[in-house]
């Protein structure tokens, strides 16, 4: 299989923001690894049998569930412990596993920012494919400048799936994707922008990059916990204006 190139990210602190809940918080991260590039069509084709008409472009039209499946397949190929098990569409992350997985939101934003505090880690025209470039499709990975962690395309080109739930109180099982894409304006192509979709959803501008790192804990790591997901899903009192009940 075409190698998945990883960058080692030292531990540190990242500040996160949920605009819907108007909540800000900080996460202490242990060291982890993350893909230098988004997973490419070529890599997806080799492991999952997808077509690769443009081998060096990011793999897109990939659902969150398929991204998770890719992570396990890559782990098995390299003899690593798979990070995920399934019960139907219910996915469990085994936090202590050393295999490939999706980054948590906290890991993704920390790796993307690379020490920067503004919305971008460099001049947007130099680091990200956006609507300003006038392109109609994702572009080959690595064609713009990297951030100080040596990561390419974390902003622009394609959105990238993360492990976390978007907002379980309002959107049930929707998962987060981050970073903006080739057709988005600068407002969306920022390190802090959060969007998401259903686990089976797939679009031409949504892909993913992998991470690695196992931790000595259960159902909690790197800014995520199953307990916090349950707490966020609970709503006391009437729904806020404009909300519809979860299906």
From TrEMBL:
A Pfam family assignment: FGE-sulfatase
Range of residues in the leader sequence: none
MF (Gene Ontology): formylglycine-generating oxidase activity
UniProt lineage: Bacteria, Bacillati, Actinomycetota, Actinomycetes, Micrococcales
Originating organism: Agromyces tardus
Protein name as annotated: Formylglycine-generating enzyme family protein
Domain spans labelled Sulfatase-modifying factor enzyme-like: 11-212
């Amino acid at each position: 299989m075409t190698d998945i190139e990883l960058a080692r990210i030292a531990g540190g602190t990242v500040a996160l923001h949920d605009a819907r809940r108007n909540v800000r918080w900080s996460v202490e991260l242990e060291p982890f690894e993350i893909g230098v590039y988004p997973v490419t069509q070529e890599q997806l084709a080799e492991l999952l049998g997808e077509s690769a008409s443009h081998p060096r472009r990011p793999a897109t039209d990939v659902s969150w569930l398929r991204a998770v499946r890719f992570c396990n397949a890559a782990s098995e190929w390299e003899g690593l412990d798979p990070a995920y098990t399934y019960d139907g569409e219910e996915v469990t992350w085994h936090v202590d596993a050393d295999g490939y997985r999706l980054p948590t939101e906290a890991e993704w934003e920390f790796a993307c920012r690379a020490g920067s505090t503004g919305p971008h880690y460099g001049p947007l025209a130099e680091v990200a494919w956006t609507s300003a470039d006038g392109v109609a499709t994702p572009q080959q990975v690595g064609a713009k400048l990297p951030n100080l962690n040596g990561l390419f395309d974390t902003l622009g080109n394609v959105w990238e799936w993360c492990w976390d739930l978007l907002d379980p109180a309002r959107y049930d099982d929707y998962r987060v994707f981050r970073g903006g894409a080739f057709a988005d304006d600068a407002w969306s192509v920022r390190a802090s922008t959060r969007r998401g979709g259903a686990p089976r959803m797939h679009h031409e501008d949504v892909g993913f990059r992998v991470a690695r790192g196992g931790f000595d804990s259960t159902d909690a790591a790197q800014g995520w916990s199953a307990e916090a997901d349950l707490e966020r899903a609970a709503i006391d009192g009437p729904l806020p204006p404009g909300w519809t009940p979860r299906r």
